[in-house]
Write a structure and sequence with these properties.
Strand content: 15-25%
Number of strands: 9
Order of helices and strands: HEHHHHHEHEEEEHEHEEH
Structural class: alpha/beta
Largest sheet: 6 strands, parallel
Mean pLDDT: 93
Distance between the termini: 27 Å
Bound molecules: ligand BV8, zinc ion
């Protein structure tokens, strides 16, 4: 088992020393890093997807067939995201980057909280919710207040097709993998924070780092499929464990 659960103080020291020695450290984050900012995660019991089955709502197929139905979920998600602020976990990553101890944050989140916390290099592999995109003519425009007025489906100004949020739905290609590839190739230490590692192909990234001999440091409130592969697994809310690790 590669997992050293740093319960003891020296376990934390050892983990910090290993991370400090890394030359190309990266962070990979999921919905769990934003839970302490008041944004429920997807698979937790109060998760958004208890109300909206992902296969029902967050798929390209449903958007094309029944845009009104898809927009029910988009609206619910948008309301949850309004006005939310970064928490100490987001700020800990921004500090690492400022101190030259983190190259980039690769995030599955669409909430923009990493950028709000001051992170500069953020790769949003599942898109972001502040813009709407037209799949027919490619036009992109900022999200507007009235886009949330039910039951309308916002239409493209240029070609009239229904617009979707600029997020990656199931069945759509994830973004920026051309940038993520080289980052992962050279990564020798990956912080994996607040993700169930169930959604592909992003869930493969930590396994790629391990395959290249890199170290994986997991921060999660529960065990995941990565826990047994990780070098370190910090159990607890990352709003507490990550600032402690970074200190
Ligand atoms: C694609 C959209 C190719 C916006 C999302 C193999 C290869 C390729 C594809 C597949 C494959 N196998 C299956 C697929 C299809 C599919 C897939 O992976 N399905 C899964 C369900 C099996 N993948 C795709 O469709 C992807 N596209 O591969 O394209 C293609 C092209 C054409 C035709 C066919 C295929 C697209 C995937 C992206 C989908 N869009 N979101 C939005 O609504 O956000 S996914 C959604 O899940 C979010 O992006 C979310 O970030 C992501 C992952 O979830 P997590 O972030 O991990 O969140 P989760 O709730 O699951 O977990 C939270 C964790 O935090 C938990 O572990 C919890 O314990 C922890 N936690 C909670 N609180 C805290 C905490 N930890 C620390 N502190 C706390 N306080
Ligand atoms: Zn259009």
């Amino acid at each position: 088992m590669r997992v050293k659960k740093p319960h003891s103080a020296d376990g934390w020291q050892q983990a910090r020393a290993e991370f400090r020695a890394a030359r190309r450290p990266l962070a990979l984050t999921g919905a769990g890093i934003s839970v302490e900012s008041g944004i429920p995660d997807f698979r937790g019991d109060h998760g958004l997807w208890r109300r909206f089955e992902p296969e029902q709502y967050a798929t390209l197929e449903v958007f094309r067939r029944e845009p009104h139905k898809a927009w029910e979920m988009y609206r619910a998600l948008g309301e949850v995201l309004q006005g939310k602020q970064p928490n100490p976990a987001h700020r800990a990553l921004a500090r690492l980057e400022r101190e030259g101890r983190l190259q980039a944050v690769i995030t599955q989140n669409i909430d923009g909280l990493h950028q709000l916390a001051g992170s500069r290099r953020v790769v949003e592999v599942h898109g972001e919710y502040r813009h709407l995109q037209c799949l027919r003519c490619g036009r992109m425009r900022p999200l507007r207040e009235e886009d949330y007025a039910p039951p309308a489906v916002p239409a493209c100004h240029d070609c009239g097709a229904p617009l979707k949020p600029n997020v990656v739905l199931f069945g759509e290609w994830v973004r920026h993998m051309d940038e993520v590839g080289p980052l992962l190739e050279s990564c020798d230490a990956l912080l994996v924070i607040g993700t169930s590692a169930e959604v592909y192909p992003v869930a493969d990234l930590p396994r790629q780092v391990i395959g290249n001999g890199g170290r994986v440091f997991e921060f999660n409130v529960e065990e995941t499929t990565l826990t047994s592969l990780a070098d370190y697994s910090f159990r607890g809310p990352c709003g507490r464990t990550l600032p402690r690790f970074v200190a």
